[in-house]
Amino acid sequence: MQAWQVHENGEPGEVMRLAEVDRPEPGEGQLLLKVRAANINFPDALLCRGHYQVRPPLPFTPGVEICGETEDGRRVIANPALPYGGFAEYAVADAAALLPAPDALDDAEAAALHIGYQTGWFGLHRRAHLQEGETLLVHAAAGGVGSAAVQLGKAAGAKVIGVVGGADKAEVARELGCDLVIDRRADDVVAAVKEATGGRGADVIYDPVGGDAYAKSAKCVAFEGRIVVVGFASGAIPSPALNHALVKNYSIMGLHWGLYNTKDPRAIARCHDELTELATKGAIKPLVSECVPMSGAAAAVQRVADGVTTGRVAVLPQDGAA
């Protein structure tokens, strides 16, 4: 079968190599899955660079989120068990963690439902307890993680402010349903948020970016507001001034969704039921901006790493496969 492999750490476009390899052999409690679509996540780029919290042995195949098909024909969502990731024609995954792919979504959309939307749901509801009528500020609102948070915020009845970088991404954020879009390249983010909220600030701030985005968040969070830290796509990890959080009376909370796999796996299944219901109602629908064949995977991962994509990019390994 064909699979992309990383033999040394570096930039995805430089270290990912397409190769003919044997199909992986499932271990105890695992199943072999035919990959119908693999969604590209920022962690795939971090894996290539050797900067992710999980470092599989070299060589490995990246691709942490797929829509796959079991040998008995079930269409499922899975996180492949590294080193046999999803940028291949076949992957393996833990049988106990498989989730049914919603009928309302096609393969590429289903592949993009899991990590980003689970992270958004746990961040907004389990951690920040977002309430109807509150103001939600989402950084990188046109990206894969941000677009999921925008849709989930709207589904919860929140007023959603999206922060983006550039006019093209601003248009995407508007189409997603943001009530207000702020272009960080052209606008004063803090002033715009305060103006839109009558000086109060945002009740919940969803930050997958870190760096300067976090600094701005601390300046426009509301009294008893909650800043949810979900990642550092900017590459800069901020050092919060805890005296500022004390004086302004706001919360800083982290969200490491992967921990729920070991700490509370039943919560993941319950969340998937909620997401499936929302997808069936049409309240959420993953924004898949591009689908690429197997041959285009490395270049696509590099584009995601460079922050030039909107929504999600999916790899279709079976497209044109022999």
Q: What do you see in this structure?
A:
This protein has twelve helices and 15 strands. It has 322 residues and is α/β, with parallel strands linked by helices. 33% of the residues lie in helices and 25% in strands. The chain folds into two domains: 2-113 and 286-316, Medium-chain alcohol dehydrogenases, catalytic domain (Quinone Oxidoreductase, Chain A, domain 1); 116-258, NAD(P)-binding Rossmann-like Domain (Rossmann fold).
Outline:
The chain has helices spanning 12-15, 42-49, 107-111, 114-127, 144-155, 167-176, 189-196, 212-219, 242-248, 260-263, 265-281, 297-306; strands spanning 2-6, 16-20, 30-39, 66-69, 75-78, 90-94, 99-100, 135-139, 159-164, 180-183, 202-207, 221-229, 251-254, 288-293, 312-316. With 322 residues, the protein is of the alpha/beta class.
List the topology elements:
Layout: E1 2-6, H1 12-15, E2 16-20, E3 30-39, H2 42-49, E4 66-69, E5 75-78, E6 90-94, E7 99-100, H3 107-111, H4 114-127, E8 135-139, H5 144-155, E9 159-164, H6 167-176, E10 180-183, H7 189-196, E11 202-207, H8 212-219, E12 221-229, H9 242-248, E13 251-254, H10 260-263, H11 265-281, E14 288-293, H12 297-306, E15 312-316
Helix pairs in contact: 2-12, 4-5, 4-11
